[in-house]
Structure to design on (275 residues):
């Protein structure tokens, strides 16, 4: 039995397991930074380093690994004293792992940082502005070479955009009553945002501060959530209202017309070139 316990314990760790706390300054809130990862050996160390380098005093890094087959586990073990808590075991995807992470978070605000994303010094600047426990605070990210993406969001902007997950700090009250809808493989954070926007139980406050680098080459930037786009219109109607839904229909119509026009232009150019 002791031998089996030893084997299990090799798959989790962190300084919290030794009874240590991430709180170094009682005057400012604790922030939980969650990273979920699977086979992230090429990015894991850098991700840990950018969190650990933050000047903000009260940060805990929670890492949920889906049972990686590469060197990710070894990197976690090597950084055991720099991570508040980590666990490595098979799971059912990104948002399952994020929901699981919430049970290990002790912070007053939560941020979700991809293993291939980078936390910038601006994060600590935004962290010092966290005051109201009923407010989600968000800033900007570096994205596809754009040094300050994206800006303040309103209801109509949400129809075609989103608050970047890597720019947003949710108060813990959100996850006392909500979790990510795991039916959506890539866009569950969009769905949660729609729901919170409708309920108005938390406020959203924007600050023009760049807090992270969002790697668009990860799964959320290189794939798309079919269920989300299938249900997008209904989600907008249910959570954002009739006029944002009308706006969605208008934009969708314009996009379809543009695609048809571009297709005809390509055919015409092909005819002219004789191909």
């Amino acid at each position: 039995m002791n031998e089996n316990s030893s084997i299990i314990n090799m798959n989790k760790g962190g300084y919290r397991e030794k009874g240590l706390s991430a709180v170094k300054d009682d005057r400012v809130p604790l922030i939980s930074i969650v990273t979920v990862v699977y086979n992230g050996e090429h990015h894991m160390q850098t991700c840990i380093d950018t969190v650990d380098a933050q000047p903000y005093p009260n940060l805990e890094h929670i890492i949920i690994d889906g049972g990686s087959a590469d060197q990710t586990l070894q990197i976690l073990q090597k950084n055991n004293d720099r991570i508040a808590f980590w666990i490595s075991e098979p799971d059912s995807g990104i948002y399952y792992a994020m929901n699981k992470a919430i049970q290990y978070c002790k912070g007053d605000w939560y941020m979700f940082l991809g293993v291939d994303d980078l936390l910038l010094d601006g994060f600590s600047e935004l962290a010092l502005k966290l005051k109201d426990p009923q407010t989600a605070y968000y800033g900007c990210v570096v994205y596809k070479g754009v040094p300050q993406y994206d800006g303040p969001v309103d209801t109509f902007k949400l129809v075609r955009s989103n608050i970047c997950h890597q720019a947003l700090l949710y108060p813990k009250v959100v996850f006392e009553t909500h979790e990510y809808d795991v039916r959506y493989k890539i866009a569950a954070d969009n769905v949660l945002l729609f729901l919170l926007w409708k309920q108005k139980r938390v406020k959203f406050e924007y600050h023009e501060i760049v807090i992270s680098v969002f790697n668009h080459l990860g799964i959320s930037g290189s794939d798309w959530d079919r269920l989300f786009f299938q249900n997008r219109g209904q989600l907008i109607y249910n959570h954002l209202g009739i006029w944002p839904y009308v706006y969605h229909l208008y934009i969708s119509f314009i996009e379809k017309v543009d695609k048809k026009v571009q297709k005809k232009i390509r055919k015409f150019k092909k005819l002219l070139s004789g191909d």
